[in-house]
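ligand=59J
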Amino acid sequence: MGALKRQVSPWRLRLVAGALLAGVVILLLRAIDLQVLNRDFLQGQGEARQVRTIVEAAYRGQITDRNGEALALSGPVETVWAHPGELLAAAERLPELARVLDTDATALRARLDQRANREFVYLRRHLPPEQARQVEALSVPGVGLLREFRRYYPHGETVAHIVGFTNIDEKGQEGMELAFDGWLSGHPGAKRVLRDRYGRSIRDVASIRPARDGHDLSLTIDQRLQFLAYRELKAAVQAHNAAGGSAVLVDASTGDILALVNQPGYNPNNRAQIDLDLTRNRAATDTLEPGSVIKPFTVAAALEAGTVGLDVILDTNPGTMRVGRHTVRDFRNYGRIDLATLIARSSNVGSTQLALDTPAEDFWRILHHAGFGQSPGVGLPGEVSGLLRDFPTWRRIEQATLGYGYGLSVTPLHLVAAYTVFANDGYRVPLRLVRTAGDQRERQFVMRPETAGQILAMMEQVTGQEGTARQAVISGYRVAGKTGTSRKAAAGGYSSDTYYSLFVGLAPVSNPRFVMAVVIDEPNAGEYYGGAVAAPVFSRVMESALRLFHVPPDKLMEPPMQIAVERAERRS
Ligand code: 59J
């Protein structure tokens, strides 16, 4: 058919060509805009999906005992995290992921749905490396791994009250972990990494800030003695059905705390089950009225002030003494006694006479310099100062009861620190728990060397035939110390059936090497005298310490033992 040639007018042709040309120009301009002018912005947008800033965990320092034995250390673990959006986009993979993580797929799904518009969510923290490799092998989109550290306490319960523990983020919560958190923790780093679409890091893009590792902390503890003290204290608390107890063993000349234990205890590796009442370091935080273990200071104050001479004979008849409306009682009537007998038998009446005859200021000064009412300065969290009232406020009855250990409050740490005086010619040695601490504090003068030596000799009689603590003896070594049995303070006075049993002592007498305090709280199985309940713990742990440190014996062994040794020597 004859085509009807359509007439295209030249103006129209030009119009179309012009429009096409304009289109090309616009496209070109847009291309230039994208490729050149807006390039950085857009490229950044694209990469934002792949580049992540991640935290680089810092390595937390170890806590060790004095011989380098690890008490707290951090091991590498892997934490699994996810980008909820990306992972939900691959929801069909959730069941296999849940299986490797030991969780329920429905619960996992719910968790992700709840957090769908976040960038980061933990799926499982602190996995062992083998399990983490399984997660990695699945290559599930949106799932990533993060290197972290987990704290382990190889000696568990035995040293828990000293070391303390961290939370899941390795932040110190108790003990040295808390007190030295800054020193141990270091500083976490941050870096930018490029991730592939499975959430795996492919390469580091930039380090924003490198992780700075924490420092190690070396304690004065000897873990071997710590374990022995733990075992003996626990056995005694159990045997006497007691509410609790503490024992502290120190090096007499350096003040180094070699063992410090409390009952009840806890396992720091079971973080989820830690009962806060069990974490208290009673030796540093719990005060008590010390009772008779104060008497050596009462006698010392009387000698120092010149109230009495060394050869004084005190008349304690009839075994009771009235002070105002209060009656001071002895266990039985000791009659006329010298100072050594006062200590050996533990006369409340004799102590009261000395305390009342000594000027308050002189008595106060000895107690104050011995450290009572002041912080022991060990640096344990919650460490308390106890209470010793200033002498100008003392009433007569207070001065009397202070003489046999009531009306002041102390911790076991105070007692062990105070008794270093008798091992160091009258100077108190400050206690320490950290070996790296540079600030060596000065010794405190408390009493003249002669007085300290005289009291030490009296305290040796406590473990003698006539003393209250035959059970503190150690074969081969001379032992000095003081027992105490104190009724616990109760509403409106003193309980008639709950007690603290105490023993504080040192050995060997000829050149004291160790000082130890033992406190048993509410023994409840019949026996409750300090000599029967606390002294045996002292004796067992002290004997181990003397032998472990090869301290030369200073006492002839009892004949049967001597004969056995000689026989053994002849045989070899
Ligand atoms: C005692 C006290 C309480 C406080 C008394 C212990 C007082 C007192 C008010 C009766 C048990 C008891 C301020 S006893 O530690 O004298 O260690 O081997 O608790 O006296 O006036 O049924 N210690 N203990 N006293 N209070 N107030 C003796 C003594 C001591 C022994 C034994 C038996 C008390 C020899 C204690 C021990 O030296």
